[in-house]
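Sequence decides. Our protein:
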Amino acid sequence: MEKKNSIFNFSQYFAASTVKKDLPASIVVFLVALPLCLGIALASGAPLFAGILTGVIGGIVVASISGSQLSVSGPAAGLTVIVFGAIASLGSYETFLLAVVLAGILQIFLGILKAGIIANYFPSSVIEGMLAAIGVILILKQIPHAVGFDSDFEGDESFMQLNHENTFSALLSSLDMISYGAVIISVLSLLIMIYWPGIKKLSAIPAAILVVILGIVLSMVFQNTGLALSPEQLVTIPVVNSYNEFMGLFVFPDFEQIGNKEVWTVAFTIAIVASIETLLSIEAVDKMDPYKRVSPTNRELVAQGVGNIASGMLGGLPMTSVIVRSSVNVNSGGKTKMGAIYHGFWLLLSLLFIPFLLNKIPLASLAAILLITGYKLAKLSLFKKMWRNGRDQFIPFVVTVLAVVFTDLLKGVAIGMMIGIFYILRTNLRNSYFYKIEKNGEKNVIRIKLAQEVSFLNKAAIQQTLLKLPKESHVIIDGSDSMFIDKDVLEIIHNFKHNAFSKGTIVEILNIREHYDVPRVKEFVHNT
């Protein structure tokens, strides 16, 4: 049974039931990824081909090595500002590509050093908040495309955009420039996305594919009418007419700049930011996975490192695991990593053979797909669920949502993490001991039973409790269940006992040793 579920059992990827799910999902992911790859390249100040190349490598190379079944990698919107600034500061795109290669090497080392373990420390409420925020951002960012207002910053997901607009000002601007042709396409597309899956006999055909076909047909019908779409309202993919022209699109890194300190600074920046964004995405995708699989994070860092090396060597952009594309993969019914791999091949084949057809796809059609994805990520039911889970879950969740929407992914998550850690520490402080008042004749006996593990974080709470105990009490401090008590806490307990006589307090210390070694994991497992 174990072998059947193993990520190394390649036969599972080609089973009919798996291909039936992965193939349609991959087409939807491809349709969404295509304009995002182009938009991120444009916003980064890189060649358009670099965006598509990065998507191809992210799909074929990274997904093949990765242990994640549903994650989709490609150029990341969160890196656009870094990439835009790095290309300008390094002086040439070739020098920047060297930094991407070096960043990939650093990511491999991070994976070997098992740095991926930090993903285990992301609070669940923050990850849920990040997903909801991405949903809100998708809705806010795609409404302009749905009404026909299309700028050059398709891949810009930050609140403050590179064109000096922000999310809300761009939204308001779009309402002044409505294209009725685009509105008709997006409204009909939304209706198909909502109602088509409910028609059981026809639901085997993905609604997203119908949406794209409808968009192409309507854009052609609207030609030479008042509803005609402009070129800016359509997908724009580079057209390759010959082998030599195709080979001329590749750019190679300038290894003569290997000694340039600024190159290494950019490389370290990309490696750290891309790794954090990847780990956040992997953690989020695992939460959405209907099969509840857990992705090996260290292996993911190695896979991303290999992908960035390949991308830098051929002229692509730095990449990460991307939440938007991964979410589309999950919502489209993807089952294994083959969905991501197939999408990489679709990107490559489309560039080579059907760029003229793809250039007829309205962005309004793709906006409808992403609007539905955004709605699924930010459902009202999720907010209600987090509210029912209590303030310690709801507040970090809401703060993360607002912070990500009004800043960017990494800053927003960092703010949410601080709030989440505060609540974790507060809960930890409260659970360091159990306080009970017992009767012994006419006298009250205060029993303080310490928890299994009492760290220095519990020091303040225990000290405050001991100081507030009434005078002339009978206090029992019981460490029977404790496998570890920090030396600072031990010092507080012994000092309290030493000074207790001045308050007429009797102190009994039960089963508390003079010294505790930090227990190993095996010891915890054996004793629990």
Q: What stands out?
A: The longest strand covers residues 433-440. Residues 7 and 67 are 6 Å apart (CA to CA). Confidence is low (pLDDT under 50) at residues 1-8, 521-528. The two ends are 28 Å apart (CA to CA).
